[in-house]
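Work Package 3 (structural annotation) set out to generate three-dimensional models for the target panel prioritized at the project kickoff. During this period the team completed the workflow that converts sequence records into discrete structure tokens, so that structures can be stored uniformly alongside our sequence database. As a representative example, we reproduce one entry of 306 residues exactly as it appears in the project archive.
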Amino acid sequence: MTLALLCSGQGHQNREMFGLLATEPAAQLVFEAATAMLGTNPTDFCRTAAETALHANRDGQILCVTRALAIARALFPGGAPSTTIVAGYSVGEMAAWGVSGVWSPMDTLKLVDQRARAMDAAGGPDDGLGYVRGLPQAAVERLTARFGCAIAIVNPDLLFIVGGDRRSIAALCTAALEEGAARAAPMIVHVASHTSRLAGAVAPFDNALASVAMNRPTLRLMTASGATLVADPHRARKGLARQVAERIDWAEVIEALGERGVTAILELGPGRALAEMATIALPAVKVRAVDDFHTLSGVKSWLAAL
């Protein structure tokens, strides 16, 4: 059995995203680090913050990475098997580096904070993301050129994330539906991640990465920069920094997981989007999301039965 853990990106934050973890001792170190970043316990933050705060770029990134780090520690208090592959979608790659032991939970979340601040400083106040499903990539490329946007993420099954200013994203989505897209709409993400609009964030983020000590990963860490395994995080650092302003090919990552013999995939969440993509792209692989389960013991039982 070869397991892959997938760390989710922004967009699926919710009030109960830490509900499975409230009494988990193994998650408390992560919660303490998140509390230092958010100013309050992440469980309380999610239950009491305004909806706009829940989906704000900085807070959303911290929450999503906290979720992955805490779930991983709760499921594998002694560490996951060394053969486990870990990959992350967008800011989820920051979580993947943390889960694999490159950074401590505190350093991981400090870097996420600096990443988000650099992105907010570089981006425009009306920037955002949208999605288009069901059109060929060439058609989506034409639409992004027409509306001054860009493809941010290529996903399996003709699902594309597009970035730009929110008015242009809305117009692009309307045009995509008129051209026959199955679905298209703006997303609740207030930054044009993985597009050249964030070019100004690359150097500050790279400087932040360079200032923190890195360990060699204890798990098989896969980066979206080329869908390759990271042996030396120092050499992979600049690729991680460039990701904030460059297109990500998540379809290539999923394909690489299949090529490396992955037999089971677990999405750490929040949400089920990555699990749904993997189910379509890798039909022979057993795929679940933590959010499919009502208890962590249920997740552990599924893992034990693999």
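The mean pLDDT is 97.
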